[in-house]
Amino acid sequence: MLHWGYDEHNGPAHWKExxxxxxxxxxxxxxxxxxxxxxxxxxxxxxxxxxxxxxxxILNNGHSTSVEFDDTVNKSVLTGGPLSGTYRLRQIHxxxxxxxxxxxxxxxxxxxxxxxxxVVHWNxxxxxxxVEAARQSDGLAVMAVFLQIGECxxxxxxxxxxxxxxxxxxxxxxxxxxxxxxxxxxxxxxWTYFGSLTVPPLLESVIWIVLREPISVCSEQSAFVxxxxxxxxxxxxxxxxxxASQRQDxxxxxxxxxxxxxxxxxxxxCLLRNYRPPQPLKGREVRRN
Length: 289
Ligand SMILES: COc1ccc([C@H]2OC(=S)NC2=O)c(OC)c1
Ligand SMILES: [Zn+2]
What we know:
Elements: E1 31-32, E2 38-39, E3 46-49, E4 55-60, E5 65-69, E6 77-80, E7 87-96, E8 107-108, E9 111-112, E10 115-123, H1 130-133, E11 140-149, H2 154-160, E12 172-174, E13 190-195, E14 206-211, E15 215-217, H3 220-234, H4 244-248, H5 252-257, E16 287-288
Parallel strand pairs: 1-8, 2-16, 11-14, 11-15
Antiparallel strand pairs: 3-6, 4-5, 4-12, 5-7, 6-7, 7-10, 8-9, 10-11, 13-14, 13-16
């Protein structure tokens, strides 16, 4: 396999050829069977505490778009929940699919959402860097938030409005004064289990915290269908009366799909999907608060 990706020739089914841990005992994502989750009274409320000044840049690394944070001090941290100690915010990024029917990495009773936000933290109490923590069984804590097709999400525009400036792999832009809490749902109820990074090297160092309540995202497909239905009702050519500039706002998810997985000197290829399918649970327990 040349370089891993999400296409037929280098996608998740091939990753084990280079990263044998892909067949490990605590791989992510998983399909959460809600009936089999176990209530755990010892689980505490989640306590995200982020300083918007920690946000630094937004970038396209070829397999997702991420916002990177200054993690040289404990300015933006996650405590509580299943965690013992303080986990420092490192970055956030997204996973999505080529259509609205799939795109999330975790599934709930077999159901996939259109996309999934990952908020990545590392255990700064026990380890001295993200890279060191990523090699430890309790090194990372990733909060996952499902994105469900619906109304456009004004908070998400802060990110999707910037994607046209980082279309090419490797591009980055200043991105500060951003508190990722604005992308969290009202309820911070969660499921938690021990898993891994969902992208090579698939390190088995993640305490997963999957929020049960999704946030909304709009997409061209669903918006177009809604508008067409509306146009049928109105019997007017309603759609073409919207100035193109405004039409832009109804394509949040489509903007992720127009990012390129290729660099300047390569033949342009869109990053249409970047989700790994659910992996075997292998006897692991999923707890809920
Ligand atoms: C900050 O560095 C990171 C963050 C996340 C990942 C992947 O793992 C999960 S979870 N989502 C991913 O995209 C990663 O993989 C090498 C490195
Ligand atoms: Zn991720």
